[in-house]
Structures are given as C-alpha cells and as structure tokens.
Amino acid sequence: MLPARNKRIESIDLLRGTVMIIMALDHVRDYFHKDAYLYDPTDLAHTSAFVFFTRWITHFCAPVFTFLAGVSARLQSFGKSRKELSFFLMTRGIWLMLAELLIVTLGWTFNPFYSVLILQVIWAIGVSMVSLSLLIRLPQPAILAIGLLLIFGHNLLDGIHVPGNTPGAFLWSFLHDRSIFTEDHVTFLVGYPVLPWIGIMAAGYSAGELYHREYDPARRKRVLIWLGLGAIATFILIRAINIYGDRSHWSAQDTPLFTLLSFLNTTKYPPSLLYILMTLGPALLFLAFGEVTLNRFTSKVAVFGRVPMFYYVLHIFLIHALAIVVAASTGYRWQDMVSLTTWVTDVPGLKGYGFSLPIVYLIWIGVMIVLYPFSKRYDIYKRSHREKWWLSYF
User: Fold this and answer.
1) Section 117-141 average pLDDT
2) 3, part of any domain
3) Does any domain span residue 264?
4) Cβ–Cβ contacts within 10 Å for residue 76, how many?
5) Using the 8-state DSSP alphabet, how is residue 272 labeled?
6) In the sheet where 116-119 sits, what is the strand order?
7) Distance (Å, rounded) from C-alpha 172 to C-alpha 178?
8) Fewest Cβ atoms closer than 10 Å to its Cβ: which of 19, 173, 313, 377?
9) Which domain holds residue 70?
10) pLDDT over 60 (residue 143)
C-alpha cells in the first residue's frame, strides 16, 4: 500500500537516481573524451562498440526522467484537487522553461550575454508539464489515449519539414523537427521537439495510477512486468520489420556486433517510437523489481533521485568548470572551453583535446563522488523543511 502523502516511493527515486548518474557519464564524455569533437558516438562508420554503448546507455535518461515526472504528477493528484494540481503543473512547467533558458543554458555556455539559448530536456519537460496541466482536466482514459497517440503516431510527421528562419519553421521545430535558428545575433538550439515528450509524460501520468494506495503491490508488479516485456517485444517486432517507428532504418553490417548496434541505433531527436519503447520497456521492469528495501549502495543512488533539479543544474556547472581547468592545464586556452557563439564541442581551438574513454569513466566517477555530499545535504534540507512550498519547484 502507498504510505502517507509525503512518503517517497523508493523504487521511483532509485530509478530516477540511476538514470541521473548515467546522464552525467554522457556529459562528462562530451567535455573530456578526445573523440567527442570528431564524430557522433553512434555513427557506425567511425565509432567503436565501447564508445557506442557509452552513449547508448545514456539514451535511457531523458525518457525515463520525463515518464517519472508524469508518474510523480499522478502521485500529487492523490493529495491535491484537480485545480491545485493543474496550477502546480502549470507554474512548475513555466519555471522549468525559464530555468532552461536562464540557468541551464548558462551552465552549458558560461556566456552571461546569452548569445546561445538551448532548448533541451528541461525545456521539454517544462512544456510537457504545462500541457499536462491542461490534459488532467480530461478523463483518465482520454489522457492515456492522447499519450499513446503521440508516442505511436508522431513518426508519421517525420517527412514534414518547414525550411528557413521563419516563425513557422521555429514553431514546427519546437513541435517535431530539431533545428537551429539565428535571430538578431542570438542562436536558438531547439534540441528537444516536444510532441513525443508530451506523450511520454501523459503515459507516465496514466501509469501513476498503479501507485494509488489502494492498488495491490503484487498486482502492480505483475502489470509493470507485462508492460515492460510488452514494450521490449513491440520494439523488437517493429524494428525487425524496418518500415515504421524510426526515421533511421537498421541494416546488416560487416560484423554481427555492428549489426546489433545498427538495430539499437534509434533516433533521439525527436525520440522515435522505437527509441521510446527501447528505453521505457527496461525502465518498467526496473520499477517492477525495484520495490525492495534499499541497501547501503542503492540508498545513495536514491539520494540523486530525490533532488533531480538541484543535481541536474549542479552537475552541468561542475563538469563545465572542471573542463575549463583541465583544458587550461593541458595546454589549451581556457577561453575556448567557454562557448560564446557556438556549442562547446564545435570550438576549433580544442582540436586534439581530451582523453581516452577509460579516463573519461574515471573522471565521471570522481564527479559523482563530488556531487554526492552536496546532493545529500540538499536532500536532508528538503525533507526537514517540507513546509517550504518553493522546494517542490527545485
């Protein structure tokens, strides 16, 4: 049974903490891997299996985080009126969009003039929350139907493109077609088109019903197992057919291993149907088997899951600041690690910079060790000051 309203569900915190730890690996790789400036890690013509899977494992982060945000919204509904929940989702969504533009973008660029504005995962989650604040006024079956329609149907829009630097092109990019725009010397990187993310959050909101206090835990586990296995099986089936569900088809490669990589190499921007099934299927199984007593290690992982926004902002600033120090100490201009007009990994002056992947993993572990005490302190503060309403926004 679900405990009191303020009691955390540890399996959700554990899954969220796990994907956030993995997320940091991707960002450390961006800033420290010697090949990050040379090729896309999922480009099978240039990558290795080690590099590919280092990137691939991080694919789970954004969809799981968005899905769990929907689940958490449903948990909030058990103790709030529909009007109260709608207001909370609307205001928190707007806050997340502003935080992406003003705080997260600053962390990525260290550019106080904001000549580059980056609309990525926090932006997409914010827009999805605003959308969910309206959707929750509908009956629950309608919310689930809209979520599944967006997840399963949005790839029908893959062939639609609106060229140019026009408001119409920006709107379509915002909805479904990742792109970059420049207006009055300000560059907008629209990295996370929102339609499928809205679908993922709506599906998560519907799945949150499984955590109602009157829902039998054994039944919840069975349902999560079947949903997880069903998502994985659907992914394998649709991917094998190779017709629909991802704009990038798989193909036979020179070796069985690289053929597998091609099969797994689904599209993230925007997240294709196959990308979503591939990532959320295992996540549902994690939730099914994660309802166990936390041990010494998993309790530490769950800490990160309880302070997601704090951790997200802190880890970006920390990794970028560390990259500046490392670049300067290895013979590069520290200024080149501060992106003034472009994305950090496109700076020509950093050619040759970086380390092997094993070193990147060591840096990642070190970053997590540094982040843990700060996250722990903030977690303690949040849990001991539940009366402070603003803590639910950060």
Assistant:
1) 96
2) no
3) yes
4) 18
5) P
6) 116-119, 186-190, 179-183
7) 9
8) 377
9) 10-393
10) yes
Report the half-sphere exposure of 313 (CA within 13 A, side-chain side): 15
pLDDT digits (tens, 9 = 90+) for 174-222: 999 999 998 888 889 999 999 999 999 999 999 999 998 888 999 999 9
What global pTM score does this model have? 0.95
Are the C-beta atoms of residues 217 and 80 closer than 8 Å to each other? no
Q: Which residues pair with 183 in a beta bridge?
A: 186
Note whether residue 2 is domain-resident.
no
If one counts the domains in the chain, the total is 1
* Closest listed residue to residue 288, CA positions, set 213, 221, 231, 204: 221
In the chain, the amino acid numbered 157 is L
Count the Cβ atoms, other than its own, within 10 Å of residue 141: 9
Tokens 């009956």 -> residue: 139
**Cβ atoms of 370 and 24 closer than 8 Å:** no
> From CA 306, how far away is CA 309, in angstroms rounded?
9
Is 4 within a domain?
A: no
